[in-house]
Amino acid sequence: MSTPRKAVALISGGLDSLLAARVVMDQGIHVEGINFYTGFCVEGHTHAIRKQNRARPKRNNALWSAEQLGIRLHIIDIIEEYKDVVINPRHGYGANLNPCLDCKIFMVEKAYEWMQANHFDFIITGEVIGQRPMSQRKDTMPVVARDSGAGDRLVRPLCARNLPETLPEREGWLDRERLYGFNGRSRKPQIALAAKYGFEDFAQPAGGCCFLTDRQYSVKLADLWETRGSRRYELDDIMLLKVGRHLRPRPHFKMIVGREEGENHFLEGYRKRFLHMFPVSHTGPLVLLDGKRIGSADIELAARLTARFSKGRDAENVTVEINDNCGPVRTIDVTPMSAEDIPQDWYL
Amino acid sequence: MSRQVVDARNLLCPLPVIRTQDAIASCRPGDELQVLCTDPGVVHDIPAWCRVHGHTVCSIDRQDREIIIDIRVEPVEAP
Asked: Across the interface, which of A4, A30, A44 has its CB nearest the CB of B41?
């Protein structure tokens, strides 16, 4: 009896990777999933920081996909290695700071390493020609296969019939006729295939699964790099960019303002690392100040802005507690800044 | 049989799942793992990860904002 062939599927948590894995499982292949955590992933949990979003399901969509498929899922932390992809993309960025093609190459390369280390035979992705403007085009598909090193061990079951034969097809491990020839941006073929398999309630994120595709997030990341004078980041930096209202009232400091209770709780975890303030006379946000050489005039300005975002915005005075983590905690009384006095370009 | 504690407090998902997965990789069947967390998402994600890998979640307890998950490591079946 021959040994069953084994494939590792890149599982993003979206519909296409779910279907791609299922199509290959249908041909008797043992499939296990792999999911990469970059730090930029859009997670149900990231949204769940905000209390107003707590009604949303808090599931991890990649794990949900694995459960639907009945396969193991290996979640890999690539935060450190991924920095080079974000900072120095060889193929450049998309509309924002999204290095989609380099990202795909990198993830397939990591999957290829995993495949070899675990004695698997080939890799599956849910890519479809024409589905994404940067990373899923007919001319970039061979680039991903070549630059990742995976070559013809990379199978895209949903569009395989539009692409040259891969090793698993030539060897007879996979029947090409039972793979698909989807192309373009239409989701109808995938929806129909999902119905055939009985998949319901699958995730269909409108903006993809990565914060780097988000314009506002990219503006905040670019601001971080510019003010630091170098293109570098740590995990905490990129997590904080996902939370709160960000304002830069002066070039040398910015404010991160909790928008509601959930975000205030999250920001509390960073209090010891930042000068921070919050209103004590009224309900209001926890505010972190990120910068250097923050003087007393800056603190007063920040306190007035903090008061503006509190329930005391229309009061004559708001008392704000200030803690710089070294001197004594103190309070100051300030007049809340009016909305029209806040220049729009302070908002990141 | 050994027992170890994974401190995943103040980490957002999926990092607590990854820490759990990495700790279990060096465990033997029958070992026990206690995972300390603060992200409420772990209540869904760590049991889901355990289900797809065949490990047993023995208990999930909450103490204030801390969540404590006890896991028993089961044998891994070869494909």
From this structure: A44
